Amino acid sequence: GNSVTQMEGPVTLSEEAFLTINCTYTATGYPSLFWYVQYPGEGLQLLLKATKADDKGSNKGFEATYRKETTSFHLEKGSVQVSDSAVYFCALNAGGTSYGKLTFGQGTILTVHP
Amino acid sequence: KAGVTQTPRYLIKTRGQQVTLSCSPISGHRSVSWYQQTPGQGLQFLFEYFSETQRNKGNFPGRFSGRQFSNSRSEMNVSTLELGDSALYLCASSLSLSTNYGYTFGSGTRLTVV
Fold it and tell me: How confident is the model over B76-94, as a mean pLDDT?
Protein backbone atom coordinates (compact mmCIF):
# COMPACT_ATOMS: atom_id res chain seq x y z
CA GLY A 1 0.00 0.00 0.00
CA ASN A 2 0.88 3.66 0.01
CA SER A 3 2.94 5.06 2.89
CA VAL A 4 4.89 8.14 3.95
CA THR A 5 7.85 8.17 6.31
CA GLN A 6 9.11 11.35 7.95
CA MET A 7 12.31 11.88 9.85
CA GLU A 8 12.19 11.27 13.57
CA GLY A 9 11.45 14.35 15.62
CA PRO A 10 11.20 16.60 17.41
CA VAL A 11 13.49 19.12 15.75
CA THR A 12 14.80 22.06 17.77
CA LEU A 13 16.59 24.95 16.05
CA SER A 14 17.74 28.47 16.77
CA GLU A 15 16.26 31.34 14.82
CA GLU A 16 17.85 31.83 11.37
CA ALA A 17 19.11 28.22 11.24
CA PHE A 18 18.67 26.04 8.17
CA LEU A 19 15.83 23.52 8.27
CA THR A 20 15.51 20.14 6.59
CA ILE A 21 12.73 17.67 7.34
CA ASN A 22 13.13 14.44 5.42
CA CYS A 23 10.20 12.69 3.79
CA THR A 24 10.19 9.51 1.72
CA TYR A 25 7.21 7.73 0.24
CA THR A 26 6.03 4.44 -1.19
CA ALA A 27 3.27 4.54 -3.74
CA THR A 28 2.12 2.97 -6.94
CA GLY A 29 1.89 5.20 -9.96
CA TYR A 30 2.64 8.90 -9.80
CA PRO A 31 1.30 10.47 -6.64
CA SER A 32 0.95 14.14 -5.86
CA LEU A 33 2.96 15.20 -2.82
CA PHE A 34 2.13 17.77 -0.16
CA TRP A 35 3.48 19.40 2.94
CA TYR A 36 0.97 20.53 5.54
CA VAL A 37 1.58 22.52 8.71
CA GLN A 38 -0.44 22.42 11.91
CA TYR A 39 -0.26 25.14 14.55
CA PRO A 40 -1.43 24.41 18.11
CA GLY A 41 -5.19 24.05 18.37
CA GLU A 42 -5.75 24.40 14.65
CA GLY A 43 -6.39 22.26 11.60
CA LEU A 44 -3.90 21.58 8.83
CA GLN A 45 -2.79 24.26 6.40
CA LEU A 46 -1.41 23.41 2.98
CA LEU A 47 2.16 24.68 2.86
CA LEU A 48 3.21 23.54 -0.61
CA LYS A 49 2.66 20.83 -3.19
CA ALA A 50 4.20 19.15 -6.23
CA THR A 51 2.28 17.07 -8.72
CA LYS A 52 4.98 15.50 -10.91
CA ALA A 53 8.59 14.45 -10.84
CA ASP A 54 11.17 17.27 -10.54
CA ASP A 55 8.48 19.81 -9.63
CA LYS A 56 9.51 22.20 -6.89
CA GLY A 57 6.84 23.45 -4.53
CA SER A 58 7.52 26.65 -2.61
CA ASN A 59 5.73 28.95 -0.20
CA LYS A 60 6.72 31.35 2.60
CA GLY A 61 10.41 30.53 2.15
CA PHE A 62 9.82 26.77 2.34
CA GLU A 63 10.75 24.54 -0.59
CA ALA A 64 10.49 20.86 -1.51
CA THR A 65 11.42 19.04 -4.72
CA TYR A 66 9.63 15.91 -5.96
CA ARG A 67 12.42 13.34 -6.49
CA LYS A 68 11.01 10.23 -8.09
CA GLU A 69 14.37 8.46 -8.31
CA THR A 70 14.77 8.61 -4.53
CA THR A 71 11.01 8.70 -3.75
CA SER A 72 11.59 11.74 -1.58
CA PHE A 73 10.06 15.16 -0.93
CA HIS A 74 12.27 16.80 1.69
CA LEU A 75 11.17 20.13 3.17
CA GLU A 76 13.78 22.91 3.45
CA LYS A 77 13.94 26.50 4.63
CA GLY A 78 17.04 28.64 4.62
CA SER A 79 16.34 30.68 7.74
CA VAL A 80 13.65 29.65 10.21
CA GLN A 81 11.75 32.00 12.48
CA VAL A 82 10.13 31.47 15.87
CA SER A 83 6.76 31.70 14.13
CA ASP A 84 7.63 28.54 12.12
CA SER A 85 7.28 26.45 15.28
CA ALA A 86 4.56 23.92 14.45
CA VAL A 87 4.00 20.32 13.40
CA TYR A 88 4.81 19.50 9.78
CA PHE A 89 3.19 16.66 7.86
CA CYS A 90 4.27 15.16 4.57
CA ALA A 91 1.43 13.57 2.59
CA LEU A 92 0.65 11.95 -0.72
CA ASN A 93 -2.41 11.47 -2.88
CA ALA A 94 -2.01 8.47 -5.12
CA GLY A 95 -5.05 9.14 -7.28
CA GLY A 96 -6.76 6.29 -9.08
CA THR A 97 -9.03 4.47 -6.65
CA SER A 98 -7.50 6.54 -3.83
CA TYR A 99 -9.04 9.81 -4.96
CA GLY A 100 -9.79 12.02 -2.02
CA LYS A 101 -7.49 10.09 0.30
CA LEU A 102 -4.37 11.68 1.68
CA THR A 103 -1.81 9.37 3.27
CA PHE A 104 0.17 11.22 5.94
CA GLY A 105 3.51 10.77 7.61
CA GLN A 106 3.64 10.75 11.38
CA GLY A 107 4.45 14.46 11.62
CA THR A 108 7.56 16.30 12.76
CA ILE A 109 7.43 18.76 15.63
CA LEU A 110 9.57 21.83 14.96
CA THR A 111 10.51 24.22 17.76
CA VAL A 112 12.47 27.37 16.95
CA HIS A 113 14.10 29.30 19.79
CA PRO A 114 14.97 33.02 19.64
CA LYS B 1 -13.83 33.56 0.92
CA ALA B 2 -14.99 31.41 3.82
CA GLY B 3 -12.90 28.37 4.65
CA VAL B 4 -13.98 24.91 5.71
CA THR B 5 -16.28 25.20 8.71
CA GLN B 6 -16.63 22.40 11.24
CA THR B 7 -19.14 22.37 14.05
CA PRO B 8 -19.06 22.00 16.93
CA ARG B 9 -15.43 22.79 17.87
CA TYR B 10 -15.55 20.80 21.08
CA LEU B 11 -17.75 17.95 22.23
CA ILE B 12 -17.86 15.78 25.31
CA LYS B 13 -19.86 12.56 25.14
CA THR B 14 -20.36 9.50 27.31
CA ARG B 15 -19.46 5.97 26.29
CA GLY B 16 -22.28 4.31 24.39
CA GLN B 17 -23.76 7.55 23.08
CA GLN B 18 -23.71 8.59 19.46
CA VAL B 19 -22.45 11.83 17.94
CA THR B 20 -22.86 13.74 14.70
CA LEU B 21 -20.23 16.14 13.40
CA SER B 22 -20.82 18.67 10.64
CA CYS B 23 -18.61 20.05 7.89
CA SER B 24 -19.35 22.86 5.44
CA PRO B 25 -16.81 22.89 2.60
CA ILE B 26 -15.53 25.90 0.72
CA SER B 27 -18.15 27.13 -1.72
CA GLY B 28 -17.80 25.23 -5.00
CA HIS B 29 -15.82 22.36 -3.51
CA ARG B 30 -17.50 19.03 -4.17
CA SER B 31 -15.08 16.60 -2.56
CA VAL B 32 -15.17 16.24 1.22
CA SER B 33 -12.90 13.95 3.22
CA TRP B 34 -12.79 13.12 6.92
CA TYR B 35 -9.76 12.25 9.06
CA GLN B 36 -9.23 11.16 12.64
CA GLN B 37 -6.16 12.55 14.41
CA THR B 38 -4.84 10.97 17.61
CA PRO B 39 -1.41 11.17 19.28
CA GLY B 40 -0.89 7.44 18.91
CA GLN B 41 -2.17 6.76 15.39
CA GLY B 42 -1.59 10.13 13.76
CA LEU B 43 -3.84 11.17 10.89
CA GLN B 44 -6.03 8.40 9.58
CA PHE B 45 -8.42 8.59 6.64
CA LEU B 46 -12.06 7.88 7.44
CA PHE B 47 -13.97 8.42 4.19
CA GLU B 48 -14.41 10.68 1.20
CA TYR B 49 -17.51 11.92 -0.59
CA PHE B 50 -17.95 13.45 -3.99
CA SER B 51 -21.33 14.59 -5.29
CA GLU B 52 -23.15 12.79 -2.46
CA THR B 53 -21.42 9.46 -3.18
CA GLN B 54 -18.94 7.80 -0.87
CA ARG B 55 -15.96 7.03 -3.09
CA ASN B 56 -13.46 5.82 -0.54
CA LYS B 57 -13.52 4.44 2.96
CA GLY B 58 -10.72 3.87 5.44
CA ASN B 59 -10.25 0.98 7.84
CA PHE B 60 -12.68 1.98 10.54
CA PRO B 61 -15.52 -0.07 12.03
CA GLY B 62 -19.07 0.32 10.81
CA ARG B 63 -19.85 2.54 13.81
CA PHE B 64 -18.30 5.33 11.77
CA SER B 65 -20.51 6.55 8.96
CA GLY B 66 -21.02 9.67 6.94
CA ARG B 67 -23.03 11.32 4.26
CA GLN B 68 -22.93 14.30 1.93
CA PHE B 69 -25.83 16.50 0.99
CA SER B 70 -26.67 18.09 -2.35
CA ASN B 71 -25.08 21.37 -1.22
CA SER B 72 -21.82 19.43 -0.52
CA ARG B 73 -22.14 19.82 3.24
CA SER B 74 -21.16 16.64 5.00
CA GLU B 75 -21.84 14.95 8.30
CA MET B 76 -20.15 12.08 10.02
CA ASN B 77 -21.73 9.97 12.70
CA VAL B 78 -20.17 7.74 15.31
CA SER B 79 -22.49 5.37 17.14
CA THR B 80 -21.89 3.51 20.38
CA LEU B 81 -18.95 5.69 21.34
CA GLU B 82 -15.86 4.14 22.89
CA LEU B 83 -13.12 5.82 24.90
CA GLY B 84 -10.74 5.23 22.00
CA ASP B 85 -12.86 7.43 19.74
CA SER B 86 -11.57 10.49 21.58
CA ALA B 87 -9.73 12.43 18.89
CA LEU B 88 -9.60 15.49 16.72
CA TYR B 89 -11.82 14.93 13.69
CA LEU B 90 -10.79 16.92 10.66
CA CYS B 91 -12.74 17.62 7.52
CA ALA B 92 -11.10 18.66 4.25
CA SER B 93 -12.55 19.84 0.98
CA SER B 94 -11.22 20.02 -2.54
CA LEU B 95 -12.40 21.47 -5.82
CA SER B 96 -12.36 18.19 -7.72
CA LEU B 97 -11.07 14.65 -7.78
CA SER B 98 -7.83 15.66 -9.45
CA THR B 99 -4.76 14.90 -7.38
CA ASN B 100 -3.32 18.24 -8.49
CA TYR B 101 -5.51 20.11 -6.06
CA GLY B 102 -4.62 20.44 -2.45
CA TYR B 103 -7.13 19.88 0.27
CA THR B 104 -8.26 22.68 2.57
CA PHE B 105 -8.81 21.58 6.13
CA GLY B 106 -11.16 22.89 8.77
CA SER B 107 -10.10 23.57 12.35
CA GLY B 108 -11.57 20.28 13.48
CA THR B 109 -13.94 19.00 16.13
CA ARG B 110 -12.30 17.85 19.34
CA LEU B 111 -14.32 14.88 20.63
CA THR B 112 -13.77 13.63 24.15
CA VAL B 113 -15.48 10.40 25.24
CA VAL B 114 -15.75 9.87 28.99
Answer: 97
